[in-house]
């Protein structure tokens, strides 16, 4: 194929006489005459596509520098005339084309939305970090948005948080972070379904108990724990400032005890007594203490089963569909 294509291209090359300084012998004249006779013969050529980039490139090279196409070294490992391209590109194999079609056909053309946005579309708010200012800002904003979107549909809050402390007890956020989310919950007109899916410690346990009565749930192997607020690291703070902070922590403790007593149905003395030291509760113990109402055993209880279907909800609310009007 390479020799045929080279002969075809040689037939397109312009004829030029040898320089006068060069003399041809009799054998050279015979070879030149034979080459001209062979080039003049009509070689059957297939129809050429004028839009073919490969043939167009060959024609331009033959017109500008024909010496690049004459007496080319033969290499069996490289397709002919491929080296004249600056950046040659080979066609994909059938297997590569098949893989690209099979695996990229349903791939999204735009980046997917972030996970909190996808959960928010299902009216789900997930608290999965300690209550630091950035988390509080996001949770309060999501609650306000869901109430504005529909003040009658319930809001589902999944909790797996250590509150305003880390798992080792070190303070990472102010107590006001937990109270900010709690106050936002109390201002909502929606039903709030709270679900503990890991741990609810400190202020996170308060948020778990602050859900709508009868709509507070806990996974079978989750843990709840209530404890006294801790004094933040004082560093080089003067003694008078340490005393001020200690008084503030005691005030927050009393507020936390009163709110837990309100939502669990226990007396203030009972809650204050168990909060002297960290008080851990499994799902059954949390139900007995009044933190939750139900334990979500697999296959027995589902939150979605308690949700009223949309048609029945519209009927009870007096909303008529546009088709019936």
Automatic annotation (TrEMBL):
Its GO CC terms? endopeptidase Clp complex; plastid stroma
Please give the CDD domains that the UniProt record associates with this protein.
S14_ClpP_2 (cd07017)
What's a single GO MF annotation on this record?
ATPase binding
Fetch the Pfam families from UniProt: CLP_protease (PF00574)
Any one biological process term the GO annotation gives: protein quality control for misfolded or incompletely synthesized proteins
Q: Where is this region: Disordered?
A: 1-30
Q: Which family does it belong to?
A: Belongs to the peptidase S14 family.
The record's subunit annotation is: Component of the chloroplastic Clp protease core complex which consist of at least 16 proteins: CLPP4 (3 copies), CLPP5 (3 copies), CLPR4 (2 copies), ClpP1 (1 copy), CLPP6 (1 copy), CLPR2 (1 copy), CLPT1 (1 copy), CLPT2 (1 copy) and 3 copies of CLPP3 and/or CLPR1 and/or CLPR3. The core complex is organized in two heptameric rings, one containing CLPP3,4,5,6 in a 1:2:3:1 ratio and the other CLPP1 and CLPR1,2,3,4 in a 3:1:1:1:1 ratio.
Q: What is this protein called?
A: ATP-dependent Clp protease proteolytic subunit
């Amino acid at each position: 194929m390479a020799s045929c294509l080279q002969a075809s291209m040689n037939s397109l090359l312009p004829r030029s006489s040898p320089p006068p300084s060069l003399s041809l012998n009799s054998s050279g004249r015979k070879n030149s005459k034979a080459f001209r006779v062979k080039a003049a013969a009509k070689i059957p050529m297939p129809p050429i596509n004028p839009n073919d980039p490969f043939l167009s490139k060959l024609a331009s090279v033959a017109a500008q520098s024909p010496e690049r196409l004459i007496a080319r070294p033969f290499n069996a490992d490289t397709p002919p005339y491929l080296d004249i391209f600056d950046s040659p590109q080979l066609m994909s194999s059938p297997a590569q084309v098949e893989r690209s079609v099979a695996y990229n056909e349903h791939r999204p053309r735009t980046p997917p939305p972030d996970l909190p946005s996808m959960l928010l579309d299902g009216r789900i708010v997930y608290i999965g970090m300690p209550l630091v200012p950035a988390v509080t800002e996001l949770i309060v904003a999501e609650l306000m948005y869901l109430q504005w979107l529909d003040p009658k549909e319930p809001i589902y809050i999944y909790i797996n948080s250590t509150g305003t402390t880390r798992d080792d007890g070190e303070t990472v956020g102010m107590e006001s972070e937990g109270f900010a989310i709690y106050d936002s919950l109390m201002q909502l007109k929606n039903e709030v379904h709270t679900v503990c899916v890991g741990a609810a410690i400190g202020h996170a346990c308060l948020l778990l108990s602050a859900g709508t009565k009868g709509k507070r749930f806990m996974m079978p192997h989750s843990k709840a724990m209530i404890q006294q607020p801790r004094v933040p690291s004082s560093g080089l703070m003067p003694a008078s400032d340490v005393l001020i902070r200690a008084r503030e922590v005691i005030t927050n403790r009393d507020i936390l005890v009163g709110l837990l007593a309100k939502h669990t149905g226990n007396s203030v003395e009972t809650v204050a007594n168990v909060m002297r030291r960290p008080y851990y509760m499994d799902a059954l113990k949390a139900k007995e203490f009044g933190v939750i109402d139900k334990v979500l055993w697999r296959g027995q209880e589902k939150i979605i089963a308690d949700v009223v279907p949309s048609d029945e909800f519209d009927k009870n609310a007096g909303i008529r569909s546009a088709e019936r009007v």
